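step: validate -> pass
step: tokenize input -> pass
step: predict -> running
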Amino acid sequence: MTPEQSQALSLRKQGVSLSDIAASMGKSEKAVKSLLERARKHDPAMTAAMQAVGTNLTPRMMWAK
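step: predict -> pass
step: emit ->
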């Protein structure tokens, strides 16, 4: 995960709005959304689960049951 992705994800988890994150990082809201989407793909639990089944692929969606 890049430092920008980490920063955006941290701010979002604190409840900061996309527009405020974009303003603080000097980026557009679209760029922040993209950073957050890429950051979510690096979820440690998802990475561990994918490695457990023998693949390094990143799922585009997941189901929780």
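step: describe -> Residues 29-40 form the longest helix (12 residues).
step: cleanup -> pass
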